[in-house]
Amino acid sequence: MKIAKGQKILFIGDSITDCERARPIGEGLYGGVGKGYVSLIDALLQSGYPELGIRVVNMGVSANNVRDLKARWETDVINQQPDWLIIMIGINDVWRQFHSPFIHTSHVYIEEYESTLRELVKDALPVTKQLVLMTPFFIEANRQDDMRTTMDQYGIVVKRIAEEIDALFIDTQAAFDSVLKELYSASLALDRVHLTQAGHMVLARAFLNKIAFEWSKD
Amino acid sequence: MKIAKGQKILFIGDSITDCERARPIGEGLYGGVGKGYVSLIDALLQSGYPELGIRVVNMGVSANNVRDLKARWETDVINQQPDWLIIMIGINDVWRQFHSPFIHTSHVYIEEYESTLRELVKDALPVTKQLVLMTPFFIEANRQDDMRTTMDQYGIVVKRIAEEIDALFIDTQAAFDSVLKELYSASLALDRVHLTQAGHMVLARAFLNKIAFEWSKD
Amino acid sequence: MKIAKGQKILFIGDSITDCERARPIGEGLYGGVGKGYVSLIDALLQSGYPELGIRVVNMGVSANNVRDLKARWETDVINQQPDWLIIMIGINDVWRQFHSPFIHTSHVYIEEYESTLRELVKDALPVTKQLVLMTPFFIEANRQDDMRTTMDQYGIVVKRIAEEIDALFIDTQAAFDSVLKELYSASLALDRVHLTQAGHMVLARAFLNKIAFEWSKD
Amino acid sequence: MKIAKGQKILFIGDSITDCERARPIGEGLYGGVGKGYVSLIDALLQSGYPELGIRVVNMGVSANNVRDLKARWETDVINQQPDWLIIMIGINDVWRQFHSPFIHTSHVYIEEYESTLRELVKDALPVTKQLVLMTPFFIEANRQDDMRTTMDQYGIVVKRIAEEIDALFIDTQAAFDSVLKELYSASLALDRVHLTQAGHMVLARAFLNKIAFEWSKD
Amino acid sequence: MKIAKGQKILFIGDSITDCERARPIGEGLYGGVGKGYVSLIDALLQSGYPELGIRVVNMGVSANNVRDLKARWETDVINQQPDWLIIMIGINDVWRQFHSPFIHTSHVYIEEYESTLRELVKDALPVTKQLVLMTPFFIEANRQDDMRTTMDQYGIVVKRIAEEIDALFIDTQAAFDSVLKELYSASLALDRVHLTQAGHMVLARAFLNKIAFEWSKD
Amino acid sequence: MKIAKGQKILFIGDSITDCERARPIGEGLYGGVGKGYVSLIDALLQSGYPELGIRVVNMGVSANNVRDLKARWETDVINQQPDWLIIMIGINDVWRQFHSPFIHTSHVYIEEYESTLRELVKDALPVTKQLVLMTPFFIEANRQDDMRTTMDQYGIVVKRIAEEIDALFIDTQAAFDSVLKELYSASLALDRVHLTQAGHMVLARAFLNKIAFEWSKD
Amino acid sequence: MKIAKGQKILFIGDSITDCERARPIGEGLYGGVGKGYVSLIDALLQSGYPELGIRVVNMGVSANNVRDLKARWETDVINQQPDWLIIMIGINDVWRQFHSPFIHTSHVYIEEYESTLRELVKDALPVTKQLVLMTPFFIEANRQDDMRTTMDQYGIVVKRIAEEIDALFIDTQAAFDSVLKELYSASLALDRVHLTQAGHMVLARAFLNKIAFEWSKD
Amino acid sequence: MKIAKGQKILFIGDSITDCERARPIGEGLYGGVGKGYVSLIDALLQSGYPELGIRVVNMGVSANNVRDLKARWETDVINQQPDWLIIMIGINDVWRQFHSPFIHTSHVYIEEYESTLRELVKDALPVTKQLVLMTPFFIEANRQDDMRTTMDQYGIVVKRIAEEIDALFIDTQAAFDSVLKELYSASLALDRVHLTQAGHMVLARAFLNKIAFEWSKD
Question: Which value does ipTM take for this structure?
Answer without folding.
Answer: 0.95
